[in-house]
């Protein structure tokens, strides 16, 4: 590696605290135009000193890396922040972090307002499940520390509400029910906050699923079901929209109960 290349990598490394650099960041670090920076990054990737993650985004390889050895970025959350911003970690990935589930998922679930293509993407050895949301939904997200970097991760209440609106974000209603059971048992539970945030979201689907599941899973917290009952929208929806069968209709909740949910903890 020439001295010029070493200086180039050193400048990029100083500019990229996570080890991942975009063309815009490289242009600023090197004092080049975006086009010139893109050409330089592509050339260095061909020579094995960078690894292309996706268009315009590169992983800086350590100087001691073995030639030809696949490079894997250590923390998938940091890769997600760089690749899919504006975004936050949500759904089942947030639930794992928050202690709402012991279920292990292969993919990292990312809620993003970026114009991404496809729902499942593999970057730098990590698999991501992407879910598009409006720009306004990725603001005011709590930050957590990961390896000296801050990552936006939905809190317990937002995680549950996201999954109530779109059960696939929990891996289906059964997993969501397990998450809600756990939420009802932890000291950090905050039912008034959950109801208040549901009011802000004002989604008929959320109220129907929340009311039904709260009545089954949190029978002692009648205030949640009562709040939901007064805010039901017209029409019937499925408890789990990804299950083909309709099941039985709960007229009380205007909900097709197509997945059985029990008040008892699921057996794994």
Please characterize this protein's 3D structure.
By secondary structure, the protein is an alpha+beta fold. It has 3 domains: 3-60, Arc Repressor Mutant, subunit A (Orthogonal Bundle), CATH 1.10.10; 74-154, no CATH class; 164-268, no CATH class. Helices cover 40% and strands 18% of the residues. It has 10 helices and 12 strands. It has helices spanning 3-15, 23-30, 34-46, 76-84, 91-98, 156-165, 173-185, 191-201, 204-217, 222-229; strands spanning 20-22, 50-54, 57-60, 87-89, 108-112, 120-123, 126-132, 143-146, 149-152, 237-238, 248-250, 255-257. The strands form 4 sheets. It has a 4-stranded mixed beta sheet with strand order 4-5-7-6. A 3-stranded antiparallel beta sheet has the order 1-3-2, with helices on both faces. Helix 1 (3-15) packs across helix 2 (23-30), helix 2 crosses helix 3 and helix 6 (156-165) packs across helix 9. The protein is elongated, with a radius of gyration of 22 Å.
Please give a quick description of this structure.
The chain is an alpha+beta fold. It has helices spanning 3-15, 23-30, 34-46, 76-84, 91-98, 156-165, 173-185, 191-201, 204-217, 222-229; strands at 20-22, 50-54, 57-60, 87-89, 108-112, 120-123, 126-132, 143-146, 149-152, 237-238, 248-250, 255-257. It has 3 domains: 3-60, Arc Repressor Mutant, subunit A (Orthogonal Bundle), CATH 1.10.10.10; 74-154, no CATH class; 164-268, no CATH class.
């Amino acid at each position: 590696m020439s001295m010029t290349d070493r200086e180039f990598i050193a400048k990029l490394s100083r500019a990229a605290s996570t080890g991942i650099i975009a063309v815009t960041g490289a242009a600023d670090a090197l004092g080049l135009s975006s086009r010139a920076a893109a050409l330089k990054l592509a050339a260095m990737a061909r020579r094995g000193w960078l690894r292309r993650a996706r268009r315009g985004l590169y992983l800086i390889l350590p100087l001691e890396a073995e030639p030809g050895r696949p490079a894997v970025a250590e923390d998938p959350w940091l890769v997600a922040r760089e690749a899919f911003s504006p975004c936050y970690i949500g759904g089942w990935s947030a639930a794992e972090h928050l202690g709402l589930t012991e279920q292990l998922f292969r993919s990292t679930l990312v809620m993003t307002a970026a114009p991404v293509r496809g729902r499942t993407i593999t970057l730098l050895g990590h698999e991501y499940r992407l879910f598009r949301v409006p720009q306004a939904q990725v603001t005011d997200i709590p930050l957590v520390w990961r390896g000296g970097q801050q990552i936006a991760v939905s809190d317990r209440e937002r995680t549950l509400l996201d999954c109530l609106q779109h059960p696939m974000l929990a891996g289906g209603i059964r997993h969501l029910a397990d998450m809600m059971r756990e939420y009802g048992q932890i000291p950090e539970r905050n039912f008034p906050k959950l109801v208040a945030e549901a009011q802000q979201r004002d989604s008929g689907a959320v109220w129907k699923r929340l009311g039904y599941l709260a009545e089954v899973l949190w029978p002692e917290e009648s205030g949640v079901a009562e709040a939901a009952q007064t805010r039901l929208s017209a029409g019937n929806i499925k408890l789990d929209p990804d299950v083909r069968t309709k099941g039985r209709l709960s007229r009380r909740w205007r909900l097709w109960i197509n997945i059985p949910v029990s008040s008892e903890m699921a057996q794994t």
